[in-house]
Design goal:
619 residues, single chain, Rossmann fold, Beta-Lactamase, alpha+beta, 5-stranded antiparallel sheet
Length: 619
C-alpha cells in the first residue's frame, strides 16, 4: 500500500497535467470529495493508481470526457427547494424590480447550471414578474458551467416529462410544449432569454452588472481559499442592489465581510457597498505575482503587466511567428480565450476571423510598419450587438517588427463610469452612562461571553465543514441513483422484449406440425416442440439441457452426429436425409430430417433440426 504522502504527490501531478492539457483547474476543489470521484473513475478504468491513469490519459485523450463526467456532479432540478423559490418569487424579485427603471435590463446568472433546469427556473420566475413583453425586452439570464456536455443538453432545452414534475401545472402548460412522445421543450421565447456558456469560477473573470446571482451547492466542492476568492468575484459581479443565493450548506458569504444576510434560513445575501474596489484588485494581482524582487525595474515591469491585465480595453499581442503571446482579462472574457490558447497559432483561433478578418490587417501592418485601423466593427455578445474600433499596431524592436498589438475599443457608447463612493462610514456611538458597578459587571459578563462565543465559532466551523461534506456525498448518491434508475429501466425494457420473443417462439413451436429441435454448439437441446413430444414420447422438461445424441428414443440419433456438427462448424449450410424410426406408439415410420444453422451475425450460435413423418412407411 502506498504511503499517504506519495499518493498525494501523484494526485497533484495528475491535477497539474489535467490543468495543462485541458485547462480544467481542479486544484481549488476540496480534496476528500475530489479524491473520491477520481478514485471512482480510476477503478472503473481498471488502473491500479494515479501514475498509471495519467499514462492512460496521455494514450487515450477521449478518457478525459469520462473523467470530467465523473468529477462534475450534475444534480439539479426545476424549482429545487420549493420554499426558497417561493421566497425569491414573493420577496426578492419584487424588491429587485422596485430599484429598476421601467426600461432598465434585469440580469441573472446561474453558476454551475448543469443541464439548465435552474437557469430556466429563473427565467420562468422573471417572466411571471415582468410580463411577456417586458421579459422579452429586459430580461437576460446567463447559465454557466465547466461541463460542455451538460451545456449542450441545456442549450437544447428538452426534458423528460418526469423532470417537469416540480413545475406547477399552470407554469408547465404556459412555458413548455411537447417535443415528442415523452419529452417536453422550453418555449422558444423563454429559451432565447437564456444564454449558456462555459465558465470556470476560479480562472475566468466574472460576469458583471448582475442583479440576481445563484450559486446553490456550487461552492461546496471548492476549498475554503477558493470559496473566498469566488465570493469576492461574486461581489464584483453584483450590482449594489443585487442578491446572492447560496445552497443550504454554504455559509461562506455569511462569514464574509463582503455580504450581509437578507435571509439566513434561505441563504439569501446582499453585497455590502464597495470601497476602493479597483485598488484592492490591483494590490491582489501584484501580490499574486510578487516573487520577492523589489528592485525598481522589476516593480515597474510588474506594474506594466498589471496595467495590461486590468485594462478595460480588450488587447491581445501576436508574435512575429503568428502565435498568440498575450491576452488581457477583458480580451479573454470578450473572445472566450483561455490559458490553453496562449502560444497557439493565431490563425487557428476564432478571434482571427471574428468579428473581422485580422490576418490581412496583421500582414498589412508588417508591410507598412504603420498601424491599421477598422472602425465600427460589429460584434454580437449576449444577444446584443456592440461596435468596436479595431487597431492593429506593429511592435517594432531593434531587429525589426517583433509582433503586433491588437486593441478593441468599445465605441458603442461612452462608458458609464461607476464611481464607488470612497471613504469610511462613520458610526456614531452613543455611550450610556451607568453606575460603575454595572459597567464592571457588564465587562466581566462580556469577557465570559466572548470566550463562549469563540468556542461556539470553532464548533460552528467544524460543523459547517462536516455539513458541506455531507451535502457533497448526498449529491453524489443522488447522481448515482439516477444512473441506476436509468440502467434499471433499460433492463426492464430488455426483459420485456425477451419475454415477448420467447412467447412468440413458443407459439410458433406449438403451431408447427413438424417436430423441431434446437441445439447449441455443444449439441445441448435448447428447444423441443410439442410435435416432438407427440412423436417421440418425451416432454420438453425431460430433454431440455440434455445432449441430443444421448437421447434414448425411436429415432437413430447417431446418424445426426456428423451432419449436425457440419452445420455448427459452418462447413455446410444445411442437410436433408431420410431415416427409418419408431414413434412413441411403437409404429415404424419413415422420417425426413433437415438441419439449418442458426447464426448470430457471422457466427453460428446453434442449429435447428426438423423431423417430419413421411407417408408410406412400412408397418
Amino acid at each position: 500500500m502506498r504511503a499517504p504522502a506519495e499518493r498525494n504527490d501523484e494526485l497533484e501531478a495528475l491535477l497539474d497535467y489535467i490543468k495543462r492539457e485541458r485547462g480544467f483547474d481542479f486544484t481549488g476543489y476540496k480534496r476528500p470529495s475530489l479524491t473520491r470521484r477520481i478514485d471512482k473513475r480510476i477503478q472503473e478504468a481498471g488502473c491500479p493508481g494515479y501514475v498509471e491513469y495519467l499514462s492512460l490519459l496521455e494514450a487515450e485523450p477521449q478518457e478525459f470526457a469520462e473523467l470530467f463526467n465523473t468529477i462534475l456532479i450534475n444534480v439539479t432540478s426545476f424549482f429545487r427547494d420549493a420554499e426558497t423559490w417561493a421566497y425569491v418569487r414573493e420577496e426578492i424579485v419584487p424588491r429587485l424590480l422596485e430599484t429598476k427603471a421601467p426600461d432598465e435590463p434585469v440580469r441573472a446568472w446561474s453558476t454551475g447550471c448543469a443541464s439548465g433546469e435552474e437557469a430556466y427556473t429563473v427565467a420562468i420566475v422573471l417572466a411571471e414578474a415582468l410580463g411577456e413583453n417586458e421579459f422579452r425586452d429586459r430580461a437576460k439570464i446567463y447559465g454557466t458551467d465547466v461541463d460542455e456536455q451538460a451545456l449542450t443538453s441545456a442549450r437544447a432545452g428538452t426534458f423528460r416529462a418526469e423532470q417537469l414534475d416540480p413545475v406547477p401545472t399552470d407554469l408547465r402548460e404556459k412555458y413548455f410544449e411537447a417535443a415528442d412522445s415523452d419529452r417536453m421543450m422550453v418555449r422558444p421565447d423563454l429559451r432565447r432569454a437564456v444564454i449558456f456558456g462555459r465558465h470556470d469560477l476560479i480562472q475566468d473573470p466574472p460576469i458583471s452588472r448582475i442583479d440576481l446571482l445563484l450559486a446553490r451547492n456550487t461552492l461546496i466542492y471548492f476549498s475554503t481559499k477558493s470559496q473566498e476568492a469566488i465570493v469576492e468575484n461574486f461581489q464584483f459581479s453584483l450590482n449594489d442592489t443585487g442578491y446572492l443565493l447560496l445552497g443550504r450548506s454554504e455559509a461562506v458569504a455569511g462569514r464574509s465581510k463582503l455580504f450581509e444576510p437578507v435571509d439566513l434560513k434561505r441563504r439569501v445575501f446582499a453585497p455590502l457597498p464597495r470601497s476602493g474596489d479597483f485598488r484592492n484588485r490591483l494590490l491582489t494581482l501584484m501580490r499574486d505575482t510578487d516573487d520577492g524582487d523589489t528592485s525598481p525595474a522589476h516593480l515597474t515591469e510588474r506594474l506594466r503587466e498589471t496595467g495590461f491585465e486590468l485594462s478595460p480595453v480588450a488587447q491581445v499581442v501576436v508574435q512575429r511567428d503568428g502565435r498568440l503571446a498575450f491576452a488581457n482579462g477583458r480580451a479573454r472574457s470578450l473572445f472566450r480565450l483561455t490559458a490553453r490558447d496562449l502560444r497557439r497559432p493565431f490563425s487557428e483561433l476564432e478571434i482571427s476571423y471574428r468579428p473581422v478578418e485580422l490576418r490581412s490587417l496583421i500582414d498589412r501592418a508588417y508591410e507598412t510598419k504603420a498601424p491599421a485601423t477598422l472602425e465600427e466593427v460589429p460584434l454580437a455578445d449576449g444577444g446584443e450587438t456592440y461596435f468596436y474600433e479595431v487597431q492593429v499596431v506593429p511592435m517594432i524592436g531593434v531587429d525589426g517588427v517583433v509582433g503586433t498589438s491588437i486593441t478593441f475599443n468599445d465605441v458603442t457608447r461612452y462608458k458609464r463610469m461607476q464611481e464607488a463612493a470612497e471613504g469610511a462610514q462613520t458610526q456614531l456611538a452613543t455611550a450610556f452612562e451607568t453606575e460603575q458597578s454595572s459597567a464592571e459587571e457588564l465587562e466581566t459578563t462580556n469577557e465570559e461571553l466572548q470566550s463562549t462565543n469563540e468556542e461556539l465559532e470553532t464548533t460552528n466551523e467544524e460543523l459547517q465543514s462536516t455539513n458541506e461534506e455531507l451535502e457533497t456525498l448526498n449529491e453524489e448518491l443522488q447522481a448515482t441513483n439516477e444512473e441506476l434508475e436509468t440502467l434499471n429501466e433499460e433492463l426492464r425494457r430488455r426483459t420485456y422484449d425477451l419475454d415477448r420473443a420467447n412467447q412468440v417462439m413458443e407459439g410458433v413451436l406449438e403451431q408447427v406440425r413438424v417436430a423441431i429441435v434446437v441445439v447449441d454448439p455443444e449439441l445441448q437441446i435448447e428447444a423441443w416442440s410439442e410435435r416432438a413430444e407427440q412423436l417421440w414420447g418425451l416432454s420438453a422438461e425431460r430433454v431440455i439441457g440434455k445432449n441430443l445424441l444421448a437421447l434414448d428414443i425411436g429415432f437413430p440419433v447417431a446418424e445426426l452426429k456428423e451432419p449436425v456438427r457440419g452445420c455448427l462448424a459452418g462447413t455446410a449450410d444445411g442437410f436433408e436425409l431420410e431415416v427409418e424410426a419408431v414413434n412413441r406408439l411403437g409404429e415404424r415410420i419413415r422420417c425426413r430430417v433437415t438441419c439449418a444453422a442458426l447464426r448470430d451475425g457471422r457466427s453460428v450460435r446453434g442449429a435447428m433440426v426438423v423431423m417430419e413423418e413421411r407417408p408410406g412407411a412400412d408397418t
